[in-house]
Q: What sequence folds into this?
């Protein structure tokens, strides 16, 4: 059990704006880690888990949100240790749900529970429900570099609402769809296609099986990037396994470093490199 982690809960009915206000509640308690919808969020990024909303069925959605799968539990627990989590905020629709999540992840008992009606008015909760039910939007408590789809099927809204908690207090930034870091309102920035190529080249250097990247084409369609790549592979390796591993590494690194979605990545083994035997 992770007895050294202080556990807090943020509870409210589905669609009332919990995720929308999660960063604000966490900031008030000096909490840098949030569990919501199967994800573990650390300040500016998702560091573990997979969104329960991506599950194929409602039953599987519930299982993912409650961390009923042992494999998913281990991933989260590994992240707790790796990131030295000291405080964590669990989001849920009921006291029973957040308690179950804490129990399944072997966390200690919840120290304090904050309820949505303590931080939002009835009118604000009604508005959140309308957005959820009518517009089909779901909030993710994680910042992003630009308007994009963080997860398949999530529509993000560019509208930002800046709020201050009072004189001397730090303002917090919120949106209908996502909470952004402070730099997002200081001007636009662009990630060059060359950045994606360089990330791929660096990953190629780390894999002995990939001899060289011969050609790369990157296209940004607004929702993420599409990449096409031709490579030379080392003679004697399992080409299928090598390309599969290379693809996974590139996608993971691009999404971690740039917060851009990789919609599609096609890699073609265009040639084989045969190492020359060294003179004995």
A:
């Amino acid at each position: 059990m992770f007895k050294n982690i202080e556990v807090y809960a943020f509870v409210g009915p589905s669609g009332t704006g919990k995720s929308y206000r999660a960063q604000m509640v966490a900031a008030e308690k000096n909490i840098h880690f949030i569990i919501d919808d199967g994800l573990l969020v650390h300040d500016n990024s998702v560091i573990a888990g997979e969104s329960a909303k991506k599950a194929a069925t409602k039953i599987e959605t519930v299982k993912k949100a409650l961390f009923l799968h042992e494999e998913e539990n281990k991933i989260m627990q590994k992240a707790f240790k790796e990131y030295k989590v000291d405080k964590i905020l669990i989001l849920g629709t009921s006291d029973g749900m957040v308690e179950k999540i804490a129990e399944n992840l072997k966390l200690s008992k919840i120290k304090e529970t904050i309820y949505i009606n303590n931080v939002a008015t009835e009118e604000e909760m009604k508005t959140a429900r309308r957005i959820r039910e009518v517009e089909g939007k779901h909030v993710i408590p994680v910042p992003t570099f630009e308007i994009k789809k963080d997860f398949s099927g999530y529509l993000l809204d560019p509208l930002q609402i800046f709020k201050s908690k009072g004189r001397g207090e730090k303002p917090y930034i919120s949106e209908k769809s996502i909470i952004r870091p402070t730099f997002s309102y200081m001007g636009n920035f662009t990630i060059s296609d060359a950045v994606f190529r360089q990330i791929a080249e660096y990953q190629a250097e780390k894999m002995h099986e990939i001899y060289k990247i011969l050609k790369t084409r990157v296209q940004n369609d607004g929702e993420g990037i599409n990449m096409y790549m031709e490579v030379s592979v080392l003679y004697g390796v399992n080409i299928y396994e090598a390309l599969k591993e290379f693809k996974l590494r590139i996608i993971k690194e691009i999404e971690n470093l740039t917060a851009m979605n990789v919609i599609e990545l096609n890699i073609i083994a265009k040639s084989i490199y045969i190492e020359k035997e060294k003179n004995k």
Summary: The chain has two domains: 6-185, 193-273. The two ends are 57 Å apart (CA to CA). The longest helix spans residues 239-258. The first strand starts at residue 6 and ends at 11.
